[in-house]
Amino acid sequence: MNKEIPHSDYDAHPETVDDDELNDYLAGIAEEIGWIVICFNSLEDSIANFLREMMLRDPYQDERLDVFLAEMGYMAKARALMHLYGQAVAHGAVHLPEGEVVELEKDLSLAATIRNGYAHADWSGLRADAYIKVKTRSSRSGILHRYKRIDKETADADITYIVSVGNRLVSVHELVQDSIYQRTNATEAASRTLPVIKYPVSADAKPRPSRAYDEGREDTLNALLALGYGAEEAATALRNVPYGLSAREGIEVALRTLEADS
């Protein structure tokens, strides 16, 4: 849970805890703070590696791109990678789920927001009920302090989220690369299931239904093939089926699409 409190409203700020409670709290959550940093750094390394693979003929021998990567911040690298994916989709070389690039960029941004909250938090100023000041910002109405309640459960959920974003990115990148280099056909690419993003309650982000992929798409594709539709035709129809539908609902949508195209 987050609270944003004006600097002038001292009475609304949670009370600071004593040294003994602070030491006990930090001893109990220090490991999770470390894992946040480790998992986020791994995510940033993946983004840099994927940029190399998207832009260089030999990503492991050609070091020219590192001249630019070394000067780029996390979000600049993330946006650049998403733009490259988007261009591949726009040119027809890759087929990704509707809105995937936009949503994945939001997930990468949220991961950075979560990590920055831990990296820049005022840990020595722990407040009552595990509230930590994670950000101070200036506005036209004055100085605002943002507090976030961070207990072990919250930290574990934030770690899980960052890891799930990394897993999602890896799977999307593999799909992009396999499509560009024709290591997979349209049927297999359309039916490939991507890992689910596990959103933390602390991030104030509602899980997006379109991000929770189940077996309905694969069942829909198999049903279309069983009805005698060609692989390319079935894969094209499947791309018009919204995610999160049951197999029956997906088949109905796909059949309507095929009928409209005939």
TrEMBL record:
CDD domains: UBA_RuvA_C. Residues 217-258 form the Holliday junction DNA helicase RuvA C-terminal domain. It comes from Telluria aromaticivorans. Pfam families: RuvA_C. GO terms for cellular component: Holliday junction helicase complex. This is Holliday junction DNA helicase RuvA C-terminal domain-containing protein. One of its GO terms (molecular function) is ATP binding. Coiled coil: none annotated. One of its GO terms (biological process) is DNA repair.
